[in-house]
Amino acid sequence: MRWRTYIMKLSEHTTSVLKNFASINQNLVIKEGKTISTMSAMKNIVAKAEVDEDFPREIAIYDLNEFLAALSLFTNPVLDFSENFVMITEEGKTGNSLKYFYSDPSVVTTPSSEITMPKTEVNFSLDSSDLSKVQRAASVIGSPDLVLEKNGVGSYLTVKDKKNDTANNYSLDVDVEGQGDYNFYFKVENLKLMPLTYDVKVSSKNISHFKSQTSNAVEYWIALEPESSYSE
Q1: Which pTM value belongs to this model?
Q2: Can you list the alpha helix ranges (DSSP code H) found in the chain?
């Protein structure tokens, strides 16, 4: 059967998702449908996003940053998906084009299955401004770790160096649902989140789930560090 071509423009949301996913893994497989997912090379971050576009087939991209750079050559890129490549043209100017070939899917990293979260002990909302504060603080004081901690009264997100008790740290109080005391550790470098507001669930099985409060949901499953602890 002859392969049909499919023409579409990428929304601003989808382009932002692709840029974010490129920070998690330069490889990407876009499967048929309206969901895009990726996984880090260390398999400690999995991300998934709902998008407006309905992709016509599985498309493997070996270097996502290169693909995004190719799109940036056009002011209003139009994508025409053929069997082995996508033809990128300028809207209204078909003579200006770039042919971008798909990769072999076997050399591209992609999640093989959906993640099922175990029981979660802690739930909270993380708004975009607080997320920005935490990320900026980590950059300013050069701290590699983020801990969600509760020891007695109050819960805090604290940016620190867990290996150095005298290092600078920054804390932000959070309104948490959940019982018990805990120290849930994240690597700051793993918090590759889009600047959105998230519902966050954390499990003592050392995994967390961030889901955006947007109509086109963006979700991340991020592994916690082994030093994490929880007691009822």
Answers
A1: 0.92
A2: 12-24, 64-71, 128-141
